Amino acid sequence: MKILITGGAGYIGSILTPTLLRSGHQVTVLDNLMFKQASLLECCAEEAFEFVRGDARDERLVTPLVKKADAIIPLAALVGAPLCDNDRPGATTTNVEAVKLLVKIASKAQRILIPITNSGYGIGEKDKFCTEDSPLKPISLYGETKVAAEAAVLERENSLSFRLATVFGASPKMRLDLLVNDFVYRAVNDRAVVVFEGHFKRNYIHIRDVAKVFLHGLDKFESMRGKPYNVGLEDANLSKLELCAEIAKQVKGFVFMEAPIGEDPDKRDYIVSNQRLLKTGFKPDWNLARGITELIKAYKIVKRREFSNV
């Protein structure tokens, strides 16, 4: 297929793009390279790869790229609550309006597969799993924009959405501000983490399984379209303290404690069911322990704090 990825040089796109190319697809990436990354250089050797430097909000630039595509994957976004709060107009125009632009331009025959965040569930009920039918109650501008983008995409017939759990794992465009990535970095380099509101729970998914789920969605599109799908590990609905305990199994001397005072600005707290996706035949390859092992290796290479979205 001919696939257009907006924001395809970011954290997820830098894994997804070569994955799609290896699977035989033609991939065009549109990205403004706002982080000055060169994460797709390996793809330039592929005849099926095209890169366009530009902004996903530029209708004159986006329109001809959309016209050539069979499927569109909108990754372009300001990702994470802090980054969105730092640029609220940019968050709205990039995360929502640019997606609505794609919906307007795309024909009914073209497929759109959009990732959003399961942080849209906000604060869940204690011991009750959030399913795709649970109410969406985002508690950050980031969550609000992604929920709005999903609604715009699912209003059209030929679309589906993936509600991603907190993603972890190494990428050529690395991010250290994601929870697992951050805690492992601190464990490796500082040997200590002070946790705020350590009982708050969330779900997790490895970045290579995110790439895999897009391949799965393309393959099973006709039976999956029209719906949202939670994407996470069934055995990884963990609190922050439970996550630290998993990291401590692999990092000797790692000490963690919960702060007696103070609050986490990210208030989300929920457990998630991924059964709808699993029933389509999808099976993740990476568990949390394997991802922690990978990150420990990666942090022998990555020693700089510029690998974050804020």
Written overview of the protein:
This protein is an alpha/beta fold and 310 residues long. It has two domains: 2-168 and 204-231, Rossmann fold (3-Layer(aba) Sandwich), CATH 3.40.50; 179-201 and 235-298, Alpha-Beta Complex (UDP-galactose 4-epimerase, domain 1). It is built from eleven helices and 14 strands. It has a seven-stranded parallel β-sheet, sandwiched between helices. Strands 8-10-12 form a three-stranded mixed β-sheet. The radius of gyration is 19 Å and the shape is globular.
Number of domains: 2
| Secondary-structure element pattern, one letter each | EHEEHEHHEEHEEHEEHHEEHEEHH
CATH architecture of the largest domain: 3-Layer(aba) Sandwich
Largest sheet at a glance? 7 strands, parallel
Stretches where pLDDT falls below 50 for ≥5 residues? none
- The name of the CATH topology of the largest domain is Rossmann fold
CATH superfamily of the largest domain, please? NAD(P)-binding Rossmann-like Domain
Q: Report the span from N to C terminus.
A: 34 Å
Strand line-up in the sheet with most strands: 3-2-1-4-5-7-11
Kindly name the structural category.
Answer: alpha/beta
Shape descriptor reads globular
Question: What is the helix content?
Answer: 25-40%
The radius of gyration over CA amounts to: 19 Å
Average pLDDT taken over every residue? 95
Task: Give the key terms.
Rossmann fold; 11 helices; single chain; seven-stranded parallel beta sheet; globular; 2 domains; three-stranded mixed beta sheet
